[in-house]
Each structure stands twice: as C-alpha cells, then as structure tokens.
Amino acid sequence: MFASKLGIVLATAGSAVGLGNIWRFPYETGQNGGAAFLIIYLVFLFLLGLPAMLCEFVVGRNAQRNATQAYGGWPWKFVGYMGVFTGFIIMGFYSVVAGWTLQYVFASVAGHLMGDPQYIQLYFDSFTNNPVKPVMWTVVFLLITHYVIVRGVQSGIEKASKFMMPVLFVLLLVLVVCSLMLPCSWKGVEFLFYPDFSKVTSATLFDALGQTFFTLSTGMACLATYASYFGRNVNLARSGIQIAVIDTLVALLSGLIIFPAAFSVGVQPDSGSSLIFITLPNVFQQAFMFMPFLGYVISIIFYVLLVLAALTSIISMHETPTAFVSEEFRLGRKTGARIVTLLAMITGALCSLSLGPVPQLQLFGYSLFGFFDFLSANVLLTLGGFLTSVYVGWVMPHQTVRNQMTNWGTLSPRFFPLFVFAAKYVCPIGMLCIFLHQFGVI
What gap in Å lies between CA 71 and CA 394, rounded to an integer? Predict the structure, then answer.
C-alpha cells in the first residue's frame, strides 16, 4: 500500500506526467492553433479523461491484485493481459527517448549543443544513428528505473515521487520565469491563451481527444495497478481531479516555457516531434544570446526536467509488468523486476537500433520503434480504455462500483450517477471515435 494520500497523488500524477506533457502537448498545441486546441483539450480532459481514469481506479482498488487478476475471469481477463503488454512495449520504445534526454543532459553540460541549426540537426542524426550510445543510455535509464522499482511501493515508488515531483515543478517555474523575461515573449503567451477557433477542424478535435487519453496514461493498466495499492479511505474522485489538475498544470507550464522562447526568436511553434531535440537547443542559444551562460544553464535545466518527467512515467510502466510477473509466477518482487528490466533492455535496444543502425528491424513497413509507437498509441491504448469503460459501466456489479466511488457509503453519492453515465456512454463512444478515426473510418 501507499503510505500517504500525498504519496498517492504524487505517484499517480507522476505516472500521468511525462514526455507527453512537456514534448507532445506543446507541439500538438502548436500544430492546432494554440489556445483553441487548449480549450477543447480541457473540455475532453474533464468530460472523458477523468472518468476513464476513475474507471481504472475502480477496477484496481476493487481487486487489490495485478492487472490480469483485476478484471475477473475470461474474456475480460484479456483486458488485463493487454494492459500489461501495452505498458511493456511502450516502456520498450519510451525508454529509448528517455535515454536521449540523458544524452542531452550530458551534451548540454559539455557544451556540445552550441552551434547553428544545421549543426544541431546533424548532432541529433549522428547520435540516433550511432549503434552504441543510444542503446547505452537506454540501458542506463532502465537501470535507474529498476533501482526505484526493487525498493517497493513505499520505499521506492512513493519516496521517489515525493522527491521528483516537487523538483520537477521547481524546475518548470524557473524555466517559465526565464522564458517570460525574453523580448517579445508575450506573443507566445497570447498564442497559448488567446483562442482562434477559425483554425479548428475535425482533426483538431481528434488530436485533442487523443492527447487527453495519452497524457493520463489510461488504457495500459498503470493506473489500475497503482490503484490496487490504494487504501479504503482514499477518495477516488478527489484524487482523480487532483491528478488531472497537476497533469494539466505541467502541460501549461511547459507551453509557457516553449512558446514565449520560440516567438522571441521567430521560430514557428509547430515544429512537430523534433521540437525538444532539434528546435529548442537552437532557440535557447538565440533567446539568451545576450547572456550565453544563462542559455547554457537553461538548456541543462530543461533536459534535467525532461529526465525527471520521463522517469516518473516509466516507473509506472515498469511497475505494471513487475506486479504481473511477481504475482502470477509467484516470484519475489526483486526477481520479477529483474526479469522485466532485462526484457525491457532487449526490447529498448532493438527499438533503438531500428531507428538507423539496423534498419532491417522492421514490422509491417515500420521500424520496430515506429511499429510499437503506432500499435500502442493508435490501437492498444484506445482499445484498453474503451474496454475498461465498458467493463465498469456494463459488467461490474453496480453496487461494487458504487462502493468504490463512495468509499462504502461514507462519501456523498451526488456525482455517482454522472460518473456511471460517463462510464457507460461518454467514454466508450469517445474512445470508439478515436479508434475509428485512426483507421480513416470517420
């Protein structure tokens, strides 16, 4: 069990807060017109994302077991297996990108990210095509994660979250202040908070909907696994709201770092997935040209921030298969963690090599990295969230769901009918729309 309510909120928020907030949210916002996307995202977050999160909480705390046991017998047990598999393959390619953040911390400290935009592009391409360095950093990142996991829920996950999450917020605030001090930074603030609905299309709606479920880590059993460590006195609804607010706050602060800095030097905010590894090093150099040392320090702080964000997420991805292996095969926690870490290292190494050094590592025309990314983001996450919502809304006994949401009648049931409606209709329909949209059906 988690030892404290603060530990629950910080650990579970850490699962949600990751590169999706600091990397994916800014470039999705940049590509979809700024504040208009933000408003739509916030609506979806609280109408769809929060109920989906609470569904996983209900499943996890009710079972007090690993994800494969949480959904009862067949065929619903398949949802748990799919969640464990999804979390594992995401950890496989996510650890590669997490390893890049460690390399960029080292490169920032050593001053290797100083140069013109072409040099920064060549630096990134050279690094990702190196057969050794990316694999090495992937392994290092997984070893750090392993150290936290083997120490258990209270001494490992909770203790690490209580340290990393406050540090993450302090670093975010420092970077926001520095970014807002730049000339013309206000244009970036306006872009983030002044809506232009003329740029909203159907694609904007689906991008916002997809970001909602991606950022909250729904659909891969992480939240259900963490909820299995919740005590009976934990208010699921309140905890869910607190986590959603923290997750959104991190995303907004990330926008207040990136957009003011980008507008200050005349860089477009829609640079896409290359934003943090190719565009931003150049932005930091140009923005703080009048004080090169400050630009140097800001670059280091930013990539340390990325490392912390990646680590808080990957810990939860590791915990899900670790709980499965140790419980299902009746192994000790340390043995289960070692097995998962070793398999993740192999998967991460193959994903890293598929990006350049060994292009033959392909599946269905994608690099192994790209295939795992596509399979998880476009199929498994959405399908897992959809099935979990259906399970809670239509399969679990109504009284069981009510007991979990009201802490066995000790909390007000005022919003319970609204949650049930969302679990039965709103979440499944929303996720089904995302799923059909990914394959061009709608």
Answer: 13
Residues 6+ apart with CB under 8 A from 41: 29, 208, 211, 212
Amino acid letter for position 89: I
For the entire predicted model, the pTM comes to: 0.91
Q: How many CB atoms lie within 10 A of CB 259?
A: 25
Of the candidates 110, 102, 117, the residue with the CA atom closest to the CA atom of residue 310 = 102
Q: What is the pLDDT of residue 72?
A: 80
Number of neighbours of residue 190 by Cβ within 10 angstroms: 14
Q: What are phi and psi of 75, to 5 degrees?
A: -85, -5
Map residue 185 onto helix, strand or coil.
Answer: coil
Say what the pLDDT of residue 315 is.
Answer: 94
Tallying the residues shown for the chain, one arrives at 442
Q: 80, 140, 159, 160: which is closest to 344 by C-alpha?
A: 140
Q: Output phi, psi for 260, to 5 deg.
A: -60, -40
Structure-block tokens of residue 425: 């209709």
Q: Which two tokens stand for residue 322?
A: 């670790």
Percent of the chain with pLDDT over 70: 98
- Tens digit of pLDDT for each residue in 93-114? 999 999 999 999 999 999 888 8
> Does the bond joining 75 to the residue before it have cis omega, within 30 degrees of 0?
yes
**Closest C-alpha among 128, 38, 134 to residue 345:** 134
Of 50, 86, 77, the C-alpha closest to 423 is 50
Angstrom distance (rounded) from CA 122 to CA 56 = 43
DSSP string of 312-379? Answer: HHHHHHHHHHHHHHHHHTT--HHHHHHHHHHHHHHHHHHHHHTTTT-TT-EETTEEHHHHHHHHIIII
Task: Summarize the confidence of residues 63-90 as an average pLDDT.
Answer: 90
Q: Which of 255, 283, 250 is nearest to 37 (CA)?
A: 255
CB 203 within 8 A of CB 37: no
β-pair partners for 336: none
The per-residue pLDDT for range 263-301, each reduced to its tens digit, is 887 776 666 556 778 777 878 877 777 777 888 888 899
Ranking 65-74, 163-172, 321-330 by mean pLDDT, the lowest is 65-74
CA dist 438 → 168, 417, 431 (Å): 33, 31, 11
236, 28 in Cβ contact below 8 A? no
